[in-house]
Structures are given as structure tokens and as C-alpha cells.
Design goal:
Blueprint lengths: L5 E6 L5 H13 L4 E6 L7 H9 L22 E4 L2 H6 L8 E4 L5 H5 L5 H20 L15
Parallel strand pairs: 1-2, 1-3, 3-4
Helix pairs in contact: 1-5, 2-5
Length: about 150
Amino acid sequence: MKRKPRILFLCTGNSCRSQMAEGFARALRGGVLDPFSAGLAPVGVNPRAVRAMAEAGVDISGQKSRSVAEFDGVDMDYVVTLCSGARESCPLFPARVRVLHVPFDDPPELAAGAPDEEAAMASFHRVRDEIREFILSLPGALGKKDGNPPG
């Protein structure tokens, strides 16, 4: 039996966007993809990301913020960088691994100037929904060399 393609969602801190992507990929595309997430400098899972995903019906509270180094030697098929920092500092992967860049805004950065919690969460909701739309386009969108989020 052929294994499902392995996909690594990569961001700088592995706290928000990559966590959301992994969570949606497991929930919505787990039958056809084997998703993981990691960061260049992991900082822990953002509580607002956990909350935003729970509101969308996906529990990421048990996910861990992991270093990309933990995936050395793991046979990945795709690496998707979700932020410019990850794209610019993406480690080298074997030539057979397709690396794509699909950028999304950083919810914590967007929320930093929010006047209240509701406004802060609005940033997380918008990016969460954009990530969900991208995940719904998988695995088809993985055939593109470089991508942009839908919308």
C-alpha cells in the first residue's frame, strides 16, 4: 500500500500559521496527506490560535511547537513555507522534496495593535479562514511551484 504524501508546514516560530495548517490538514485532508508542522525557532503554540481553531471545530490544543531539526532524516514529500522568514531561512531538503512558499499574514503581529480581544481575534479568524481555504485546495495546489493563498 502506498503511503500518503508527507507535508511539512514551516514557519519561524511554529506557534500559529503552521499549527493551523497542520490542524486543518489533519482534520480536512488526513485521508490523503500526512501533515506535520515545525519552526525555525519554535516558541510554543499560541493560545489565540488554539482558540480560533477550536471555534472552527478543530482541536490543536495537543499539538506541540517543534523545531525543523526534529525532522532531519524524515522522508518528506513537500515543505510549505508560510512566512517570509521561513522562506528566506528554509533549511536544505533533498532535491526530491518539493518546497513551496504560500505566505499568510502573521495573526499575532496583526493583533498587536488591537484595541480589545475581539479585534485581536478577528485577525486570527481571517488568517485561519485563509489557511483553511488553502488546505481545502490540497493536494492539487501542491503541483504549483510557488503559491499564494486564495482570496
